[in-house]
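Follow-up to my earlier ticket, as requested here are the two runs.
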Amino acid sequence: MKRLLGGALFASVAAASATSNPASRNPLSNAQVIALVKDLSANAPRAVEVTSAALAGKLSDDNPYAETSDEASVFSALAAGLTESGRMISLDWAEGMEESKAEFAAFFEKAGLGAEKPLAELTGKVPVERGDAVGLVYLAFRPVADAAGMRIFGLNADSDTHHFVLVPVAVAERWQSVKIGDNQYLEDSDWQFLALIETAGIKPRSTRHPADSERPAPAIP
């Protein structure tokens, strides 16, 4: 997990504001963040509403993603909206097997995807090392997402917590490796669990930290 001005002033400022705000600590403009949360949440109204409130500094103080600064980080704004709308789950890197299974099962059932097969596959499995439980559960649910044309997509917040959303493949490929903050990226979750994936004989979709394949945010339609 851990791991601009020339020409006419008016034209250059307009071009900059279409991508990011030069005075901002965020790599994405507010418009790009809203486009992103719409993609990640399938345009869920609550996700867009809460993310917009976060960007405007209007989250209630009891919201876990409320920030004391005048400007919310991209991750905090996204996490607030996605969590509030039930579109994101967060698991500590060392989360236990039962909690990880329960979170993924509820997540997939809410998305209309079956959880019975992956849960059956996980019966009796014991993590070899601390930190393996989340990866084992991810691997069990991964083919269910794949079969539905979906990806378990990661929001890398440069922390000890995994953050996952379920998105169509096209959305994952559009936003993969886009930077959302200091050492924070949108990512294919495979690279987080490479050792387990390779042990299982699965070809990973991504083997590198997203910083090594960083891409600009896609153009806003």
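Run two:
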Amino acid sequence: MLHKILILSCIKLLTTNVILSQIKVHFFDNVREIEINRYQDVKGTPYLYKEWRFADIVDNNGLMFKNVKINYNGYTKNFEVRIDDRFIELNEKFYRRIEIILSDKKRKDVYLSGVHEKFKEKFILVLFNKINTMLLKDFEVGISEHEVQNVGKTVVFKKFVPITRYFIVSSDGLIPIYLNKKSIRSYFEDKIDLDDFAKENKIRMNSEGDIIKILEYWIQTTDY
């Protein structure tokens, strides 16, 4: 029995090493490695996730790479992959889907490439996707600079500034939407009786979850 367990353990270890080797070869072939500490002079972070997450990545041939450590850099607008102590930018041209496992390990953030002409060269987070209707979330980061005179010398302070944008894709095309009543009412005013639905369901129209509930209701009450 012990002999059998040892054999199975060796097989599992060998399989794991083979998978890791394949991932390393795949991701580090013809890509540009990056320096993780290149933003030391900028306050804040360009990354979307506070901690590096594990993700399942699907390439254009349908091949899936599981449990790849990843984060999204809003400043460069690229996903970055970390394997051991090496970091690379993921080339979105070779991949079509990224599923990031969230901290509760039950939910996933799903990113798709090529969902719309506006985002053909980047991954976009898909918050809702049913019957040709999508809610997209786009995250970018800029840098603000502030100059201060210090003993006759100009000191420049830099800070990362996150920017989040939302879009609804439907038969109406790609329409930007904001997390406020004015924007949400404007989009849905000729589609559903929004105020009654919001009142009955205690929807304040100021969050991602609110827009998703409204989209669900719209889909249910629309004839296709």
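The only thing I checked on run two: Residues 178-224 form one domain. Let me know what else you need.
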